[in-house]
Write a structure and sequence with these properties.
Layout lengths: L2 H9 L4 E3 L5 E3 L17 H32 L2 H6 L1 H20 L13 H11 L2 H13 L5 E8 L5 E7 L10 E8 L6 H4 L3 H7 L6 H12 L1
Antiparallel strand pairs: 1-2, 3-4, 3-5
Helix pairs in contact: 2-4, 5-9, 6-8
The structure holds fe (ii) ion.
Pfam families: Sod_Fe_C, Sod_Fe_N
InterPro entries: Fe/Mn_Superoxide_Dismutase, Mn/Fe_SOD, Mn/Fe_SOD_BS, Mn/Fe_SOD_C, Mn/Fe_SOD_N, Mn/Fe_SOD_N_sf, SOD_C_sf
Cofactor: Mn(2+)
């Protein structure tokens, strides 16, 4: 196993440090695999750019917005506080969503694409008929997202049912209700354009080959009990 992977496993999920004046800032979480480990489904070039540039930019701008929010609140400047909400939602959502997305994927040799077992497998059969039906539904709905956004498999905390939802831009799944994200697929062009050009359906066909259903199953077990 590459040194990077070993280091990553220890640091993934931290992504946050406390600054001396009490303001929280967020940092880029390492990937739990090498950039090229998802090939040929997703190229190493895409993964590196997506992680190092796109995700990092969301974090940088999120931290900047939070600092501005802190100052606006200190000054009691309500209009500045309100003005910052869209930047916080967009960049904070980008950080939240991508942090989930990296964990939703895993190399084939580490179980990528292996169908879900256990409770999640049963729940998928019950709520969607079969795994193939679910994948088809998510791929179709993901392809139909206008502009940029995400398609999600979520757990409704109230009904305990699985749901497929889409969100626009960087809206996290929580903006759609009491939903816990099990899987999120990024359908922004930056997630596939370098490899798949404008053919989003091809990207959505191949991403299932590196899907980490084991991770989704663990979240499901934790959240559905
Ligand atoms: Fe992205």
């Amino acid at each position: 196993m590459a040194l990077r992977s070993l280091v990553s496993r220890k640091t993934l999920g931290v992504g946050l440090k406390l600054q001396f004046r009490g303001l929280q800032t967020f940092t880029l979480p390492d990937l739990p695999y090498d950039y090229g480990a998802l090939e040929p489904a997703i190229s190493g070039e895409i993964m590196q750019l997506h992680h190092q540039k796109h995700h990092q930019t969301y974090i940088t701008n999120y931290n900047k917005s939070l600092e501005q929010l802190h100052h606006a609140m200190e000054k009691g400047d309500s209009s500045a506080v309100v003005k910052l909400q869209s930047a916080i939602k967009f960049n904070g959502g980008g950080h939240v969503n991508h942090s989930i997305f990296w964990k939703n994927l895993t190399p084939v040799q580490e179980g990528g694409g292996e169908p879900p077992h256990g409770n999640l497998g049963w729940a998928i059969d019950e709520d969607f008929g079969s795994l193939d039906s679910l994948i088809k539904k998510m791929s179709t709905e993901g392809a139909a997202v206008q502009g940029s956004g995400w398609v999600w498999l979520g757990l409704d905390k109230e009904s305990k049912k699985l749901v497929v939802e889409t969100t626009e831009n960087q809206d996290p799944l929580v903006t759609k209700g009491p939903l816990v994200p099990l899987l999120g697929v990024d359908v922004w062009e930056h997630a596939y354009y370098l490899q798949y050009k404008n053919v989003r359906p091809d990207y959505l066909k191949n991403i299932w080959k590196v899907m980490n259903w084991k991770y989704a199953g663990e979240v499901y077990d934790k959240e559905s009990s």
